[in-house]
Write a structure and sequence with these properties.
The protein is an alpha/beta fold. The chain is 46% helix and 14% strand. An 8-stranded parallel barrel has the order 1-2-3-4-5-6-7-8, surrounded by 5 helices. The structure holds flavin-adenine dinucleotide.
Length: 305
């Protein structure tokens, strides 16, 4: 379903993000576990794309496989760094033929060994424009073409320390044709609310989906601090994690509790949607839904409930 229709129908969206597993066996395992995610009735699920190149076909194969699972509407991520226009055109054509309705449209980070080759695109906004040109060519079965989601960074993106300039770039990316913004993970809701207000002041009116990642291990926290460069763990969360003295199950409980409280507060503050970084495991997300007292996304406010 096109993103615009999702927002029109659902009011509020709930989505889950996966990464493509490295082996066929792990991919099959993930597809098998999809029934657990499907029970939560997500509005859509998204599958990341390796800007480095190694997992590119795996993203395609996984979204096409997920398309066959009932209740699951997959959205592929597509990064433009290192790609030329012909490559991106071929990918879009494949996705259009597979009946996929939307693209999570990103720049990606050049791999360290790329030798500075940036390809045809400099920023995600170039890719948004390219997709809109594809959309105008009527190659997609939906006459509107692909719906487009782009990334936003409540705590700021490390490459643009000037936060006013960053907002200008984000506005340009939305004006190029984005239908929604999905944020980087954040652990302090005030950062999200302030970002949302700054977007509003900049004249950005598309829905902004909040990126939530339940902390499930101390090792995972350190890894995410690297991957989501700039994401900050508040002192209160760090103190709670420290109290566990490193006991794995206790860290996981602290992390899931923190994320649940974030979600409850976001729901109270009219969030347009919540995007869960699942790390391919359903347990934490299922626990969040259960503690919020609901069995699925409909009960959380999707589908206009
Ligand atoms: C929801 C989400 C999903 C993601 N999925 C993936 C994934 O699947 N694969 C992956 O590899 N990475 C992924 N990332 C990471 C993302 O690719 C990186 O954070 C990347 O550095 C920024 O991507 P972007 O799309 O925001 O780029 P852009 O919007 O191009 O922004 C990148 C930087 O350039 C600046 N900028 C923008 N326009 C201009 C301009 N005209 N002139 C100068 N500077 C400009 C921005 O302020 C920012 O600092 C994801 C991030 C998020 C939040």
């Amino acid at each position: 379903m096109h993103l615009r229709d999702m927002f029109a129908r659902e009011g509020r969206t709930f989505s889950f993000e996966f990464f493509p597993p490295r082996s066929d066996a792990a991919a099959r395992e993930l597809i098998d576990s999809m029934s657990e995610f499907a029970k939560l009735r997500p509005t859509f699920v998204s599958v990341t794309y390796g800007a480095g190149g190694s997992t590119r076909d795996r993203t395609h194969n996984l979204v096409v496989a997920l398309r066959q699972v009932e209740e699951i509407d997959p959205i592929p991520h597509l990064t433009c760094v290192g790609h030329d226009e012909d490559q991106v055109h071929a990918i879009l054509r494949r996705y259009a033929r597979a009946g996929l309705s939307n693209i999570m449209t990103l720049r990606g980070d050049p791999p360290k060994d790329s030798g500075g080759d940036r390809g045809s695109f400099r920023q995600a906004s170039d890719l948004v424009r390219f997709i809109q040109r594809f959309n105008a060519s009527n190659e997609h079965p939906d006459r509107r073409g692909f719906g487009v989601a782009v990334a936003g960074f409540p705590e700021g993106h490390p490459l643009t320390p000037n936060r006013m300039l960053e907002m200008d770039y984000l506005k340009a990316k939305v004006d190029a044709g984005a239908d929604a913004i999905v944020t980087q993970m954040f652990f302090e809701n005030r950062d999200f609310y302030d970002f949302r207000e700054r977007c509003e002041l900049a004249g950005i009116t598309v829905p902004i989906l909040a990126g939530i990642m339940p902390v499930t291990s101390f090792k995972g926290m350190r890894k995410m601090a690297e991957l989501a460069a700039g994401a900050r763990y508040p002192a209160s969360l760090l103190r709670a994690v420290n109290r566990t003295k490193g006991q794995e199950e206790a860290v996981r409980r602290v992390g899931v509790h923190w994320a649940t409280e974030q979600c409850r507060d976001l729901l109270d503050h009219d969030v347009a949607g919540i995007h869960f970084y699942t790390l391919n495991r359903s347990t934490a997300t299922r626990e969040i839904y259960a503690t919020l007292g609901v069995s699925d996304s409909l009960a959380l406010g999707a589908h206009g409930a």
